[in-house]
Predict the 3D structure of the following.
Amino acid sequence: MSRIYACIASGEDKTELVSVAQAFAYNIELLDDAVLFDLTGTENLFGTRAQTAEKICDELKLKNLSGNVSIAPNAASALLYARNQRGVSIVTDTKSNLPLDTLGIDEDTLGVFHALGLKTADDLKRISEDDLVARYGLDFRDAIDLAKNDGNYILTPNLKENKVTWATNFDFAVSDFERLIFILSNGLGKILEQTAYFGFSTECLEIELGLDDKTTRSFEIKLSFPTLDKKFWLTIINLRIADNAPASEIVSIRLVSHFSRARSVQRGLFSSTKPEPENLQLTVDKLKNLLGKENVGVPVLLERRLPKPFALDAEALPIGAEDLEIKEPKPILSLNYFTPPLAADVTANKGRLLYLRTRRFSGKVKEYGGFWKGFSQWWNLLRWQTFEWDVEMEDKSLYRLQKNARGWFVIGEYD
Amino acid sequence: MGQVIAFKKLARLQEEQKHSETYLEVGNLSLLRGSLTEFTGEASAGKTSLTLMLLSVLTQNGEISSVVDLAGGFNPQAAKKNDVKLENLLWIRCGGHIENAFKAIDYLVQAGNFGLIWLNLNTASLEELNFIPSSYWYRFRTKIKGSQTLLVVTARKTLLGSASSQSYSFDKREVIWSGGGKFKLLKELQIDLNTRKPFLIKPEIVKVEANYV
């Protein structure tokens, strides 16, 4: 199969030029002054080289763009002609009427050729290749190849698709999102197939619902891992949108799949088994639907001196990272919080805690340690006004007792 | 009498050999994966500390584990002190709704391959605990059987009955303080660890250190 390359050299807006090229090819290289693209195998689609060039020109006119267009059997010639010959150039294997100074020949050599009456590439081809290489060195072979329309420039696609889109409009407005799942499944299948066709996977889907009241509602679903599992995506979409469906009726759907590198699964022979990422994500989503988004996530410590110096990161998922060295397990006394803290009645005498009563327990204080100041935010009203004690009751239970501006509280038990 | 003791030890040895790959041995605990375990005891009996010790081993090993926190009692700071790898932990706050806690367990068991699922019922009142139908436990037992998941339930009283494969009860023994006068700090909690299942053994003393840093 003969190869066909096209090039548009123009100073016009690059995005517009690229959009013209995208109408003809997938493999596109965007250069400073030109757009080079591979048309190999498109003869049945666009016709002969001349017809293809005509179609490219039509597309340029449609977008009000101007530029030189070339169609050539190799990338180097396409680029050379588009850059150096005005209008449309259909390059054949045999003839080349380009001036010699377009072939990258140095000034001194050009001067010699001009003195000898050599003006075009065709003139140069008449001289023996071996003689030229013997006289000007091996590097001169590049110029000879260009003159013979046989340059060795390799098109390197640098313009990559980063998303695919699917959209549909409905004949009638639909009020219930769940009724659209069947149609959504079809569209989802298509964009995931296209994503796979480009050799990518996706971890971000955008869903835009056009509504009957002329507004749109957008959802963005981002995962921490890429996947092309249609059933999984459909379940996630259903979980995220069904409970949060728009009030107005839906008249159109648009799906966008953003590309990301496919997941590489490499597990060690002895590594522990973990929930499949899809399973984990679905479980977390189900749990968030059940308990609220803010109640499911990964615990994180805040490096601040607060009564509860930790938070729940609802956006994160457990990662299953392994430590190289496992520390010797040793139980450390842990404080379990009471949420909310238990209001307490405290009997004290001469600064000594004697008796503690809450709605859950009461008894004599056997031993205690403290107090400590447990809250140090200077801008807060409670700054340095929170005092804490560790208290042992007569039944050997251990609690953390707190006194603040609102009174006495038992904030947790040691366990 | 001596023969009877020897027979028990041999039986235990055989069972351990049979399940050598599925037993998790941490400190004084020996737990069979794919089964239910309960830690019971009054306040300050050390249930949480020993559960965190289990979590520490599993999460450092890269296993994803989960805490189903009924009433917001879980303390990530204490977990960190016990060397729990927090980024491998899924924290689920149930806001005091016991039904939601059980639904959450259902989802987790269904997802499969969690290292440990800890149902923290420590702060639940006895009335609440009495309302839990025992059928829940049998369903969980059936679901996780043969998996690698350990379902650990901590509560004030025993709940699981014959659904559990291991049942440990914790008794407070001694609280040791350091320092004197007003400057006292908790130093150590000594607990008696009693095993009710699968073997009734002599209670072992476990020392739980306090760490204020």
About this structure: The two ends of chain A are 77 Å apart (CA to CA). The mean pLDDT of chain A is 87. The longest strand of chain A covers residues 163-174.
